[in-house]
Amino acid sequence: MHRMNYLLMTIVVLTASATQAAEWGDLTATFVYDGKAPAPAKASVTKDVAFCGKFDIVDESLVVNSANGGVANIVSYLYVGRTDKQPSVHPDYEKSAKDEIKLDNNQCRFEPHMTILRTSQTLAVANSDTVGHNTNISALDNPAQNILVPSGGQTKMTFPLEERFPLGVACNIHPWMQGKVIVKSHPYVAVSDKDGKLTIKNLPVGKFTFQFWHERPGYVTDVTLDGKKTSWRRGRVELTIKPGQNDLGTIKLAPSVFVEK
């Protein structure tokens, strides 16, 4: 018994030492619309008007903060090619590895508009509205899902395979309802907030490729960084992550970037 306790303590100490020895860094960036912020386009509410018409529903494919020009819903993730080795994962992420991630049909829109899901997690699709919705997720590598979710109901979905692109989410009953689900095998994914800022926390130190994506243009390729126009081929850029904070600063995006092709 004493020998077993000693071995267990040794394993704990070695694991703790390895965690402390590893170095980790955060990546931040702020995306700004380089021009006058466009007013959000009103959605055309044509179904269940008595209920859905009560809400200020807009087209969320481009959301720009009128106060500071921040562009919401820019997606960034550590890019892993099909033959690349998976990145080391910080121990803090283990606590959420099996979590249920909620996607709600709420006020005739999807909340959140962009949902981040790991392949080990479960997507819990809920309906907080008093009208029925269906949630149609057009997966590529996983089986597609198209589930009717009654008022007050909930259904659970799993996506065990990583998806190369964010998946489209739609309600066929209410065609203005659109969203995205980003499915990755690792946790190093972030979406920019209402101020255009995104943060990927606890990345392993080293050189990695990151991909940037937005639902209007797809890959974010043409940017202005440090006052210089730069092209990120296929939305990818190689960055060296150092211990602590790694800030790309303000990245400006011309209005032409968001013209759907």
Describe it for me?
With 261 residues, the protein is mainly beta. The chain has two domains: 137 residues, Immunoglobulins (Immunoglobulin-like, Sandwich); 96 residues, Immunoglobulin-like (Sandwich), CATH 2.60.40. The protein is 9% helix and 41% strand. The chain has two helices and 19 strands. Strands 13-1-19-16-17 form a five-stranded mixed β-sheet, with no helix packed on it. Strands 2, 12, 14, 15 and 18 form a five-stranded antiparallel β-sheet that branches. A five-stranded mixed β-sheet has the order 5-11-10-7-8, with no helix packed on it. The chain is globular, with a radius of gyration of 21 Å.
Radius of gyration: 21 Å
Most strands sheet: 5 strands, mixed
Let me know the CATH homologous superfamily of the largest domain.
Answer: Immunoglobulins
- By CATH, the architecture of the largest domain is named Sandwich
Strand content: 35-45%
Shape: globular
Low-confidence stretches: 10-21
CATH class of the largest domain: Mainly Beta
Strand order of the largest sheet: 13-1-19-16-17
Quick structural overview:
By secondary structure, the chain is mainly beta.
Mind sketching the topology for me?
Layout: H1 2-21, E1 24-33, H2 49-52, E2 75-78, E3 100-105, E4 110-111, E5 114-118, E6 122-127, E7 133-138, E8 145-149, E9 154-158, E10 167-170, E11 178-184, E12 189-191, E13 197-204, E14 206-214, E15 218-219, E16 222-225, E17 228-231, E18 236-241, E19 244-253
Parallel strand pairs: 1-19, 3-6, 5-11
Antiparallel strand pairs: 1-13, 2-12, 2-14, 3-4, 6-9, 7-8, 7-10, 10-11, 14-15, 14-18, 16-17, 16-19
